[in-house]
Amino acid sequence: MVYLNFTNLDSETQERLLSSSKEDVEYRSGTELRQFAEIHDKDYEALLGLP
Q: Global pTM?
């Protein structure tokens, strides 16, 4: 799971950055994450940190 450290940002900016970060992770590693989730019986959405 990816954790970001936001400092001195309003909540709207934090959410926008977190959303774009998750999209970037999914774009770059989505196939591998899906395969890992299937092999290890994990929730793909939870791996990305999505609600």
A: 0.57
